[in-house]
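Working notes for the structural subgroup meeting. M.R. asked for a predicted model of this chain before we commit to crystallization trials. I am recording the input and output together here so anyone reviewing the notebook later can reproduce the run.

Input as submitted:
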Amino acid sequence: MATDSHGIASIEYPSIREGIKQIGPAFIVAALMLGPGSFVILTTAGALYGYQLLWILAISGVFIIVYIEMIARIGIIAEQSF
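Returned structure, recorded in token form:
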């Protein structure tokens, strides 16, 4: 964090190019998790079982959060984007 001549802290925002580089892994993870195959499988499961499998939503939500955080940490450590 930089400071000006009066000692007031100023936030340095990344450029648009740097922002796009950081968003790249998120697009890859989202495309892999929500592809057309998963849409078909989830629709079929919903048609066959109704609300009986709703409890899986909570468990899968936890796993998705852990997975996305892991991907973010790898990106931060490697200081690269895809």
